[in-house]
Structures
1.
Amino acid sequence: MTRDIITRRKKMFNNMVDNSVAVFFAAPEVIRSNDTHYPYRQNSDFWYLTAFNEPEAALLLVKESAEQYQTILFNRTKDPLIETWTGYRLGQEAALKTVSVDQAYPFDKIMDLLPEIINGKCALYHASQLYQYADNIIDNLMTTLRQGIRKNLHAPESIIDWRSMLHNMRLFKSSNEIAIMRQAGRITALAHIRAMQQCKPDMYEYQLEAEILHEFIKHGARSPSYNTIVGSGNNGCILHYENNSERLKNGDLVLIDAGCEFQSYAGDITRTFPINGKFNKQQKEIYDIVLRAQLKAIELFRPGVSIKEINDKVIRIMVEGLIALNIMRGNIDELIEQKAYTQFYMHGLGHWLGIDVHDVGDYKTVGRERKLEAGMVITVEPGLYINKDADVAKQYRGIGIRIEDNILITQNGNEVLTSDVPKLTHEIETLMAKSSY
C-alpha cells in the first residue's frame, strides 16, 4: 500500500503547477450524542493519499518544480492521558515513516505554520465546502496572507479544486487495490450465501441482516460499505429500503443488497431469492428476464464501450421479456422511445466502485457515456420492480428483483469479482435446500 500511496502523490504532483501547494483534510469526528461519537471513517480522498485513519489531520503536497517537492503532515500529538480514554495516536515522529512524509507537525500548530508554507505560492489546491473546519482554516490563511503585504506575505493568485484530478486517478485501480476488492467480493459473496442458507419463513428482515453482518465481521470486514437492504415482498420494490423490520412471508421473495467494506474498499452485491427456497412460476419468469439481461451485460462489458451502450441493450431485453408476459403492451421501439419501461426499471445499470460504494469519477453525461478502460471497476445491476399497485396481472404484483455483481474491466473484457454467490435459479434452490436450519 505504501508504494501505491507514493505513486498516487507523484501523479498529483505531476498534475500540479510549479510553485503550488495542495491541501487535503481528514474527516472530522461526528458526535452521536453528548460525548459519544459515530464510528470514525476517514475521508476517502485523504485515505487514498495517506492510509492514515485519524481525525484532526491535513496533508500538504508542496511543489516547487518538477524536480523539487515535499510532503507535510499535520496530525494530533501523542498524549498518554487522552490515549487512555480514546485510543492510540500516531504522533509526529512515527508519522514520518508510517505515513511516508518528509515532515510532520502538530495539528494545533497548523495556523502558525501554514502562512509560512504557502506564502508566495502561485496556486493553492483546496476542495471547498467539504468540511466547514477546513474552509475556516483556508479562509483565515488567505486573510492572513492578503493582509500581510507589509510583512512580505503574498497570497496565492488562484485557488483550484483538486477533486477532478484526484477522482479521475481513483477510477483506475492498481494491482493491490484489485486484490483487496477481490477479497471484498469474496467476503460479500459468503455473506449472501449465508443469508440464503439461513433464510426461512417467519424470520424478520433484520435477522437476515444480522446473518450478513456476522459473516462480514467473521472475515475481517468490520463494517458494511453502505446500509444493508433486506426487502421482502413488496419491500423489494423500494430501491433504498432500509427499515428491515418486516416478517418474511412464505411464498414471497426477498431482495438483499449488501456489501462489506474490507480494508477501506467496498463490495456491493444484490441477490433475490425465494423465502421458502422455491421460485414460483411468476417469480421465475421475472427473475429470468433480469438474469438474462445481466448475463448479456456482463458478456458485453469491455474497454471501449460505455455503461449507456450496454444499458440500452439491457432495456431492450427486459422490455421484450415484459411484452412476452403481457405486462407491457405495444410496439417495442415505441415503448423504449417513450421510456414506458421506467415504471418497472427506473435506475441505471451500474456505477463506479472503489473506496466508496458509489465511487467518485466522471461519467461524462447523465447517460453515462464515458468509454470504459482497463482498471475501472463497476457494478452491473439490472432490476425489475412490479409494485403491488401496478396495473398488471395480480400474480406479478409485489415482485421486486435485482441481480448485482462487481466487475473489473480488463484489457480483453472483464473479470467478475463476485461470482462466488449463485444467481441461477436452480443453483439458488439447491443451495437453500441444503440449509442448516
2.
Amino acid sequence: MSGQISHHLSPTPAPGLVTLEELGHLVQGREIDTVMVAVPDLRGRLMGKNLDAHHFLTKLPGGPEMCAYILATDVDMNPLDGFELAGWHTGYGDLRVVPDLGTIRRLNYLPGTVLVHGNAVHPDGRPVAVAPREILRSQLRALAVHGLQARVGIESEFVLYKGTEAQLRRSGFRNPTPVSPDNLDYALDRPPALNAFFHDLHNALHEAGAPIEAIKTEGAPGQIEVAWPYGHPVGACDTYTLHKHAVRHIAAQHRLTPTFMAAPQTGTGSGLHLHISLWRDDEAAFAMRPREELPELLQHSIAGLIDALPQLVPLYAPTPNSYKRYVRHSFAPTNYTWGRDNRTCAIRITGHHACTHLEVRLPGADANPYLALAATIAAIVYGLNNHPKLPEPCTGDAYHAADPLPVPRNLEEALTDFQQSSIALRAFSTPVVQHYARAAEVEIEAQHGQVTDIDRKRGFLRA
C-alpha cells in the first residue's frame, strides 16, 4: 500500500461523518489542523497518534506506524512477556494503522481535530488477527456464510463523580461523590451539573456523526445510560469508543470524572447491553408477533448464546471487577437464562414484529465492545451450525432459577473454561484465544497478593 492513504475501506461515510474531500476543504480553510488516527486496544480504548492534517492528506503512505505493543500490554501500558504479537522476543517492532476513511469525525470538544478509526495490519499488509476490530469482522464473515447480517444497538452505562481526575487520584479513589446523590432512574428533574453535561455530550456525539437515541439517568447515584440507534456492528462499536473518549474529555471540562468500571462501588453495577437482530436481504429474520412461537432462526440463535457464551466469558467480562457486578436482583444476570421481556435474564427477547431482537445483558461497562459483540456473534453462529437444544424460557425471577448454568464467580474460573473451550478455538483460532487468555492472566496477576481495604477492615483488629 504505497502512495497516499488507501481508500478501499468504507469510502462512503455514514451521514454526519466527514468525507475525505470535505476534510481537504476543512484543512485548506484552516478549520482542521489535526487528524487523530486511532486503533482500539485490548480494552477498547482508543490508542494512536495526532497527525498534522496536511501531512495526513498528502504525504502519509498507507497509515502511520505504531509499536505493536499497543495490542499487547496491561491497562497501564507496561511491556509484558507472554504475548506472541509483541514482546522483548520480537524487539517491539511496528504495526501499521490503515485509516478507515468512512469513519472521519469532527470533534467539537477538541478544536481543529478530527478522529479516524483505523485497522491494524502487519508491515506486509496482513490484518493483525488479534486486533479487536478484525476479531469482530471475522465473526461477521462467519455469519455471512449463512446469508445473514447483524444490526446492533448499544446501551452504555457509566457513573459520573464530582471532582477532577487529579482530585480523585489524590484521595486514592476512596469514597468518591456521585454527581447526583440518589436513584434518579428516568428522572427529568436532574441537577444542573448533569443537565449541562448531558447537553454537551449530546451535541458532541451529534456533530461527530454518532447521534444518540436517548440519554437518561440510571438507578445508581451518578449513573448515566446512553443508547444509540441500530447500525452496522463495527460502526456501533466505533461509536461506543468515540463516546467513551468524548465522555472523559467533556466530563473533565465540567470538573467531573467518569468511570466505566463494571462495579465501581459495592451495590453499583454498570452494563454494556448489546441489542442485536439478524437480517437476510433487508428482511428481519427474527420478526414475530407477541405470543407467537419463536422463529426457528431465533430459537437456534438463543440456544447458541446459552450454550456458547459460558465458554467465552473473558471476552465480555475481562477483569476481576467484572464479576462483582453479577449480583442477585441487581439487573445484572447471575445465570445463563433467557426470557421474553425479562430483565432478570442474561438473554432478553424484546421488541415486536420486525423490531423483535435480542438484548444480551452479560457484558459490563468495562468490556471491549468489539470483543463482547464478537463473542455474541460467535455464539449465535455456533447455534446456527449445531442446533443445540433450547432450554425453557424463564417466566419469573431468573435469579432463583435452579437449573441454568451460573455465571462464573471470578475471572480464574472463566479463564479455565475459555482456554479449554473447543467452541472458542474453532470460532477464534488458537492465536486469538492465547492472546486474550494472556490478557486475562495479566489482570489476575495484577490483583494477586494485593492487600485491600476489606482485608484491613475485617482483620486489622480481629486477626
3.
Amino acid sequence: MKRIMALLLMAVLLVSLTGARPVKAEETLTVYSYDSIEPWMKEIIPIFEKEYGVKVQLVTFGDAGEVLSKLIIEKNNPQADVVVGIDNSYLQKALQAGILIPYKPENARYIPEWIIKDFDPTFHLTPYDYGAIAIVYKKDVIKNPPKTFEDLTKPEWKGKLIVENPLTSSTGMAFLLWTIGVYGDRWPYYWEKLKQNDVIIVKGWSAGWEMWDKNQAPLFVSYATDPAYAACEENSTNIGAIFLNNTAYVQIEGAGIVKGTKHLKLAQEFINFLISKEAQEKLPTTQWMYPVNKEVKPPTCFNYALNVSSAKVISIPAEELAKNTDKWLKEWRELMVEGKKPEEISPTQTSSSDRTTTTEGKKGSSICGPGLIVGLTVAPLLLRRRL
C-alpha cells in the first residue's frame, strides 16, 4: 500500500512539474501587403522566421489601394500587425486615417536623409525602396515613342496607352499626381483628352503588365527600372522607358506598424529587418526598385534603368497632398467613371510651377465614355512587382 501511495505521489509531482512549464505557442506576425511583393517576401520571410523563431503570415491584396482600404475598414478591430507597401502617394491618407503608430528603426541611419525628409520624418512609415514611374514600350514594336504628355493625346496613340486606376493602384495614383504636378489645376482637361483618346484603365500594375506583355497595347505606365528587369532576367535590351516632358515622379514605398498590434516588439523587429542589409540585398531583383540602405548597391544590370539624374523631379508638398488627395480622387472618378466634364467637377486650384525641381542623383470590363476601364485576372507568373 505504501508503495502504491508513493507511486501516486510521484505521478502527481510529475504532472505538477509538467504543468508549471507550459509549451509556448509559436508567435505569429501578420503582414498586409500587395500581391506582387511576394517574390521579395518569399526570399526574406524564411530568414526572419528562422532568426526569431516565429511565423510570419503574409496576407496580400491586389493593390496598395486595396491594402489601405482594408486597414481603414479594420481600424477598430485590426487584424494585421505590419503593413508593407504604402507609398508617398497614399501616405497622407494613411496618416489621416490614424491606423499606424510611429517607430524609428534602430538602423534608420542607413537611409539617405533626402528619402526620410521627402517621405515621412515622423516614421509612421519607414521607407524600404524607391523608384521613378515611366512610360515603357518595346523597341521592336515602337520605333518613335512619344516624348511628352501631349503626345499621348495625339491620334497615333489612340487606344494604345495602359494606365492603372488611381483609386486602387499606387502606380496609377503616382501617374495622376505626375499629371497634376505638370498641369496644376488644368489636369482634368488633360485627362479628358486622354479619355477621348481611348486610354485603357486597369485595376493595377499586374493587370496592366499582362495586357502590355501580350501586346494588347504598346504603351504602359510602369517603372524606369523595367529596362533593367529585361537585362537581368531576359538578357534583353528590348524594353525602353520614357520620362514625359523630361520630368519624373519618384515613388517611395514604406512599411509601418498597425495601431492595435498585439505583437509590438516583433513588429518593430520586422521593420528593422526590412531595411537590413540582408533583406535589402534581395530587393532589387525581386521588387525591381532601388534599396534604401546606403550599403546595398543594385546589380550592374541596373545600369540599363532609365537615369533620372538629369530629369526634373515632380514633387507635391505633403500638406497639399493631405488637403487635396481625396478631392483629386473624387474628381478623377467623376471625370473618368461618371462621365462628367472638367467644367463640372470644380477642380482644385493648384500651381505646377513650384513642384518641379531639378534633381541630381535623386531620384470584366466597362466602357466609361471613350476611355476603357478593364478588370483582368492577375496571372501569378506576372507578379514580378508592383502596386
